[in-house]
Every structure is written in C-alpha cells, then in structure tokens.
Design goal:
Blueprint lengths: L1 H28 L9 E3 H4 L4 E2 L23 E3 H15 L3 E7 L4 H12 L7 H4 L25 E8 L52 H15 L3 E3 L6 E4 L23
Parallel strand pairs: 2-4
Antiparallel strand pairs: 1-3, 4-5, 5-7, 6-7
Length: about 270
C-alpha cells in the first residue's frame, strides 16, 4: 500500500506539473489588450464612408496581411470619427465620399513594417510602391519608423471617391505591378479620384503640395485638405492621404490592441 500510494502521488504530481506548464499558454491566448472606451468603429458613427482597409489584404508595400489586422475595420477615437462624419456630410453635398485605407494601427503592425524594411531581400512589391527608392533608405528617408501616429488612434489615411462610387477590383497576388506614380489609367485601378499617386506611394510626388502635381490632381488634393483641415485635422506634408485629428485624445500613447471588433469595449 505504501509503494502504491507513493506511485499514485508521483503520478498526481506529474499531472499537476504538466497542467501548470500548459496553463500560461492558454492564458496568453486570451490576453490581447482592449481599446479604451472612447475608441469606436467608424461604421458606428458614419456607415457611408467607404472602408478599403489595405493592411488586412496583401495589396500593400509588404505584400502580405499585416500583423494585428484581424478584420477590415476602421477604428478611431470618437472625436476623430465624429469630425470625419462632419467632413463626409460636407463632401456628400458636393458629390464625393470619403474612403479610408487605414485608421488605428497596432504597434505590432508597425513592428511588422520594421522587420520587413530590415529584410533587404524582400522587394516583392517594389514595382508598385517604391520603384525609385532603394530599400536601404526606407528608415533614413522617413518612409518607415519604429513608431506611428496611427497607433495613438486619431490618425487615418484617406482619399476621395466621386459618387456614384464604383467598386475597386480585388488585387491578385503575383499580378504585374505598375508604379504608384504612373498615369491613373496605368496604375492599379483604385476608385479614388486622381491624386497624382496611389496610396502609400514611397516617392516625393506624394508630398501634398509637390509643385509637380498640378491641374485636377492638385485641385483634388486641396479639396481633401481644405475640407479636413477646416474640421480640425492636420495633414502630414509628405503624404497627401495622411491626416491626424487635433487635439489628440492620446498624444503620448501607442496602443497595441488588434484591429477587431472584440477589441472594442462598446462594439456596434
């Protein structure tokens, strides 16, 4: 009986150790951080704004779905979302709609960009997004950084679409790539009005007020800029599509909750 008890105790101890070893893995699986209460899905504030969330698809400069993008969802702080709704109301009366490419961006996505930029052999999407930029220059030239204002929740990438909006066809991985600054008829067929370059074009032609961008392309950029800046957004001069609502609700905080409805406290 003594020996049997000893064996039984040993078995029970082994089972307990095994369960203890596996418990942290199970716990970690459900420990993604949540968004603060004042983060909202844009669609709950304005369902008319088009959402073409590029980083949940392979049609981006990396060529793969980006870490942290679990759903094609625009998440913003409520003040930014409500200001964007005001902009949409103005633009609808002029025959346009806003379209967002990216909104809140988790830190893990920024980390993914950094790892990609450090891999100098991965240039699968160079032909479209950075034809004239040597990949060794992405950090020095400011195209990639270890932190992004998007992670603070009040920054978005946005364009204009003429109504009635035509759908943008899906990108097919491996299809021939055209430079993002090629004439609009040659670029990937985005339904955005002509801004002179495509979204996420790593080129100085993307600078909002670049003097080489004239005529209708310049007028289109200025329509977007004037509308958004009149409602509290500030443009990043190097990217015609990049705007931040000021004052930011979280000017010094870089969040890392996933882009997903389950991250929102008050999901709609």
């Amino acid at each position: 009986m003594t020996r049997l008890s000893t064996v039984a105790r040993a078995l029970l101890t082994a089972v307990a150790v095994s369960l203890a070893a596996t418990a942290p893995t199970t716990a970690r699986a459900g420990t993604d951080p949540k968004a603060p209460e004042d983060f909202v899905a844009l669609r709950s504030v304005d369902p008319t704004i088009i959402q073409e969330m590029r980083y949940v698809t392979p049609h981006n400069f990396v060529g793969k779905r980006i870490d942290g993008y679990e759903q094609p969802l625009c998440i913003l702080t409520r003040p930014a979302a409500e200001a964007l709704h005001e902009a949409q109301t103005k633009l609808l009366r002029q025959g346009y709609t806003l379209k967002v490419y990216d909104c809140y961006r988790p830190q893990r996505a920024v980390d993914h960009f950094v790892r990609w930029a450090e891999d100098l052999h991965d240039e699968a999407m160079k032909g479209e997004f950075y034809p004239n930029v040597d990949k060794t220059r992405l950090f020095a030239d400011g195209y990639i950084a270890a932190k992004s204002g998007h992670s603070r929740g009040s920054t978005l990438d946005v364009t204009l679409v003429r109504l009635p909006a035509k759908p943008t066809r899906p990108y097919h991985p491996g299809e021939p790539l055209e430079p993002c600054f090629a004439p609009k008829s040659e670029r990937f067929p985005d339904n955005s009005i002509d801004m002179g370059t495509g979204f996420d074009c790593f080129d100085t032609l993307s600078h909002t007020l670049d003097r080489r961008i004239q005529g209708r392309q310049r007028a289109n950029r200025l329509l977007l800029k004037g509308t958004l800046e009149g409602l509290g957004f500030v443009n990043l001069a190097e990217e015609w599509w990049h705007y931040t609502f000021k004052p930011e609700a979280y000017p010094d905080t870089y969040f890392d909750f996933p882009v997903s409805r389950k991250s929102l406290t008050n999901a709609h």
